[in-house]
Amino acid sequence: MKNYFSHIFFILLSINCFSQNISDGLKQSLEISKVADLDNIYDMNLLEDRRININQADFNTLKYIPFLDIFHVFNLYNYIRNSGQVFSIYELASIKGFDRKLIEKMMLYISFETVEESFSYQDILRANSNLIFRYKNNLLAKQNNYKGAMDSFYFRYLYSSDLFGFSILGEKDYGETFGGKHNLYAFDHYSFTVFLKKLYRMDILLLGAYRANFGQGLVISSNYFFIRNDDPIKVINLNNSIRPYLGRSEYSFFNGVATTFNIKDDLKLNIFYSDMFVDANIKNGYITNIYDNGYHRTDNEISKKYNSTKKDIAYSIRYDNEQLEIGFNLLNTYFDKKIRLNDYLKLDTKYNLLGSLDYLFNGGNFMLFGENAMTDAYKFAYLNGIYFNLEAIDFVIKHTYFDKQFVSLYRNKTDKYHNAINTSFKFKIIEDLEINLSYDLFNSDIGTVNNSPFAANEFLISFKLFLDEKITFYSVFYDNFKQKKTGILETANSYTYNVNNYIVYNITQDIYTKVYLKNVFYEKQNGFLIYNDIKWSQDDIYLYFRYSFFDVSSWDARIYTYQNDLKYEFYNPVFYDKGLNFVVLSKFKILDFLQFSSKIYYTYFFDKSRKDKCEVKFMMEMDF
Questions:
Q1: Taking 80 as the threshold, does the pLDDT of residue 51 lie above it?
Q2: In terms of pTM, does the model score above 0.85?
Q3: Contact in structure between 95 and 75 (CB atoms under 8 Å)
C-alpha cells in the first residue's frame, strides 16, 4: 500500500505536456462510451484544418459541427436565414441553446467568413492540399509467425476545393510485408477517391472509396454510432449522406461510384454501386467467416485475403424540410459464394436484400426518430425512440429489436443486442453542474457471451462540475449486471462496477493538469488505474507527458482508457496486471506548411514474466 501512495504522489507532482487536437469534450465522451467512431474522430481532426463556414453552410452541413444537436442546428440555421450572416462568437451567444461552454467547444470547428454573392471559376483552383507520412514501430513486440517487420507505414495525400477533390492513401500494418510476393505494390492496402461537388443537380459525385450512412444504421451504415454517451443526442444518427472516405480502415467503406441527386430542394436521391474484394474463410463452398480487421501478417491470415468478392447496389430517397425527414432505403448485396456465418445466419443464396423506412421529426422541444427494416426473407428489425429537449433536462428513450435471423451486413455494429431499451437523461439544474443518467436493458437469443443466450442491465451516472474558470471535476459510476444461460435450467450471473473520477486544473492559458482515477470491480476481481496529464502549448510547439500506475488483478477486470495520440490516430489501450505506463507526445511546426509530430509509449510490468511494451510513432504533415 505504501508503494501505491508513493506512485500517486509522484503523479500529482508530475509536469507534462500535450500535442493532440481532439477537444476535451470528445475525450470525456470516449472515456465513458462503449465505442468510438474512429472516422468521426478523423473528421474532427480534419475540421480543425478546414473549418465549416457557418454563413455558407446549408442545414445538412451544419449537422457536422461537433457538439451540436438537431435543436442547436435548427436554431442556428433559422437565425442566419432570418437575421443574416454571423460575424462573431458574441452573436452566437444570443441564439437559443448556445451557452458559453458550448461555444468554446465548437470554436475549433467553425469560421465566420462572409459569403460572396458572385461566383468565379477561380473557386475551382482555390484549394487546400494535405500530405501525411506516418511511421510506427513496436520495438519490444515479438514477431511471432509474422511475415514482416513490427513496423507500420502510412501515407495520404488530399486535394480539396469547394468543387473538386481527390485523395490517395496506402498503409502497411504491423507484421505485414512491405513489397515481396504478398504485396507486389509495396503497401498492403491502397485507397483512392475522386469527388465532384455542386455539379448541376448533383450535390456530390464520388468515384473510389466513400462512406454511406442513412437512417439509424439498421441497413446502411459505414460508421459506428455511440450507444452510450455523456450527451443523449449522440446516440442518434443525424447525418444521412454519402461522403468521401478519408480514413485508414480497410473495410469500413464502400468502393465504386456514388452520387446524391437533387430532385427538388427538399427531395434527394442517393444512389451507389460498390465492388470490393473480401477477406473470408471458405468451407464447403460457403463463406463461413468474413474478416474485416485488414491484417495480413501470417500464413493463415494471408490465406484468407481476397477469397471472395461482394457487390452492393443501393438507393436512398429522402425528403427533408428541416422539420421532417423521411427516407426509404434499399440495399442489395451480392457475394460470389453463399454465406453461412453461424447456425442462425444462413443465406442459401448469394444475395442479401434489405429495405427500410427511417424518419426524424423535430417538434421543437422533442424529436421522434427511428428506422424499421425488413429482409427479403421477411425477417424484421426495429429501432424507434423519442428525444426531449427541455429547459433543464434532455431525455431520450430508444427501443431496438432484431429478429435473430435478420441479416444486415452494414448495420451499426454497436447495436448488437436483439432486444434492447436504452434510456438517457442529461440534467443542467445550474449553469456549472451537469448530471447524466442512463439505464439500459438488453438481451440476446444468439450466444454473444461464451456462446450462450444472456440478459443484462446497465446503469451509468456522471457528474460534471465547473468549480471556476480553472477547475473542472468529472465523476462517472457504471454498473453492469449480466445473466447468461449455461444449461436448460442453469444460469450464471456476473457483475461489473466502474468508478471514474478526474479533475482538470488550468494553471495558465497554456498549461493545464489533469488527474484521473478509474476503479473496476468484476465479481471478486478488481483493479485501478491512475494517471496525470499536464498540457503545455506555446506558439508552434506542443508537448505532452503522461505517467500512469495500474494494478489490475486479472484480464476479466481489465481497464480501458482513452489515450492521446497523433493527429488522425485513435488509441484506447487495455491495462491489466501491475505496472507503469509513460506517454510522451510532441508537435513542432517548423514552417507555415510543415509540421512534425512524435509519440513514445512505454509500459513497464512489475511481473517480469510479462514483456514490457514500447511503441514509437513519427508523423510529418504538410499543408500547401
A1: no
A2: no
A3: yes
